[in-house]
Amino acid sequence: MLQVLNPATEEVVATVPAAGPEDVDAAVARAAAAQTAWAAAAPADRARLLRRFAAVVDAHTEELALLEVREAGHTLGNARWEAGNVRDLLDYAAGGAERLNGRQIPVRGGLDVTILEPLGVVGVIAPWNFPMPIAAWATAPALAAGNAVVLKPAETTPLTALRLAELALEAGLPDHLFQVLPGEGPVAGNALVEHPGIAKIVFTGSTRTGRHVMARAADQVKRLTLELGGKSPNIVFADADVEAAAAAAPMAFLDNSGQDCCARTRILVQRSVYDRFLALLAPAVEATVVGDPLDERTQMGPLISRAQLDRVRGYVPEGAEAIRGKAPEGPGFWYPPTVLTGLPEDAPCAVEEVFGPVAVVLPFEDEADAIRLANATPYGLSGSIWTRDVGRALRTSRAVRAGNLSVNSHSSVRYWTPFGGFGRSGLGRELGPDALTAFTETKNVFLSTEA
Ligand code: NDP
Question: Global pTM?
């Protein structure tokens, strides 16, 4: 059994049975049968059912949000956004079912067309940091493209995914088309990766586990999308609106308690404005409201688990220079907002993914130095660039090796724009106009007119 704890109180919220390899076998067999009929349905019918699923999610956003608060410790505002994001993903993907067009390519002696065939049964392995949206990022387009989905949520956060599967049935989706199997990663997750009936794995989590999944999937040349870690820069040039950059910097790494693969945890500041930036940043970090996730004024909740709390603590060097906010005492996995200064560029917390409310500030000299520092990690997921110079914004955007950049803002993820990483941040892209094609194989068909 899996025990689900409320990270803000350490109280047991639920216990859930853990799936073993035999449960994965049975689920994949049921999914395969459901997928055959689903793929044969008219695209407009698939779209209609997915829109109905979106409407049912919409009617349950508050319930889903409260469940996310209890199992993941997310602030209520964030959790409401997340439930709405699931609805929007389903709506957006539904439209894709009706627009999954192949091409007609000019040839001599016939007609050549491409057909985007569904893959079959897709295995989704989701993390605990955004349990609902990340599950839906893969599930919505996979279903819309004519696939079935077996989803393994993280051990710590299975409840919203289980509820979404119930809501799918309430909306009229066929039985077994979307199944949720809570379980341990090395058991249920691994069984999905190794199962010959699973055509593709979409994995979101650590680079370490992602590498393992990739190696195990290689035996069957299994299709993969990997959304892995990040260590994203927030580059502040001297010509920027420094006040605006400092005001926005805290929530760019504190949102979701820093448990965000896009968190801007490397704040790179041009040396000529470094002291001014820190003087503006300190009160903004100290003023962050950390506490009860159900209080609408709260900006940051707890970390997900004691293991994560210990991991985050382990990254902060004893006696380091720091700006620190406040965090509650007592039960719950709390860590205060923390900004470290005066560290070497290659300190572990400056180059590795901490996944907690901890950022480092490093000075740079000029544009070339900023780009060098921004690219000095094996990751390449996100980043922000603050400058008033349009040419510099464009040059830096081109030079930083990352999949999702944002100028004078910290936006990264919209369901209608592509998302994914360079380097060890992942493989493939999710979301955006091409989300469905990642769940298809392109088949080319030539029809002769000569016979
Ligand atoms: P993992 O990458 O281990 O977990 C992500 C998912 O993979 C979970 O569902 C997990 O299951 C599953 N999993 C674990 N082992 C296997 C396996 N052998 N085969 C298949 N699936 C598996 O992350 P952790 O929870 O251990 O978090 C550690 C660190 O990873 C964080 O501190 C953070 O740096 C990074 N991380 C990054 C995320 C991102 O969005 N990029 C998301 C989550 C973590 P289970 O829950 O049972 O372990």
Answer: 0.97
